[in-house]
Specification:
Blueprint (H helix, E strand, L loop, with lengths): L1 E5 L2 H4 L16 H9 L2 E4 L7 H10 L7 E5 L6 E4 L4 E4 L6 H7 L3 H22 L2 E5 L19 E2 L18 H12 L4
Parallel strand pairs: 1-2, 1-3, 3-6, 6-7
Antiparallel strand pairs: 4-5
């Protein structure tokens, strides 16, 4: 059995002490949760990932019915352009974000696109027969509304609801927050 995690920087464990920016952190909640349930952790999180990139990763990953999948959905202002050999992420930290927002972004379009992405991931994982947990975006994502979805998703709370400390960048959740979140997710697996 594997615990397979998808998400962005928080799921990756960015800025936790010793983060090398290449491999996910052993103190990030997916590793802690996998340890609690006796599973091997496969963390496919990508710092800065948009929901579109998260869906791409889900579709490219071999997932077995015995696996458990966690997906931490991200802010709707993130997007990705997928080319043949690479993915260009678009977010507030990128140089081209302002132009993208000015010429291509609308709240209505973002809500529509992200609802389709999350519904498609739900449908895909459901057909695989694995157990999976979706966490909603952070509370500051005003466009996120569970009523928009076609399927009855049971979104769990976001890790930022459990922040009791911060990582070395004073922005991302710290080790105690990851520990609390792994404990919180356990109750959805028993």
């Amino acid at each position: 059995m594997n615990l397979i995690a998808f998400g962005g920087s928080v799921t990756f464990g960015q800025a936790l002490k010793g983060d090398n920016g290449i491999t996910s952190h052993k103190l990030a909640y997916p590793s802690l949760l996998a340890k609690q349930i006796g599973a091997k952790c496969k963390n496919f999180a990508v710092p800065g990932a948009s929901n579109k990139l998260i869906l791409k990763k889900i579709l490219e990953t071999k997932i077995n019915p015995s696996d458990i999948v966690t997906v931490q959905w991200n802010n709707f202002t993130r997007w990705a352009i997928i080319n043949e050999n690479n993915v260009t992420s678009i977010g507030p930290w990128t140089d081209h974000f302002d132009k993208w927002v000015k010429y291509f972004y609308t709240d209505k379009d973002a809500t529509f696109n992200h609802t389709i992405i999350i519904d498609y991931a739900w449908l895909h994982l459901s057909t695989l027969g694995c157990k999976f947990i979706f966490s909603r975006p952070e509370k500051n994502e005003e466009k996120f509304n569970k009523k928009n979805f076609l399927h009855a998703h049971n979104f769990v709370d976001h890790i930022t609801d459990f922040m009791v400390d911060t990582a070395e960048d004073n922005d991302h959740p710290g080790p105690e927050s990851h520990k609390l979140y792994a404990e919180y997710l356990m109750k959805f697996l028993i």
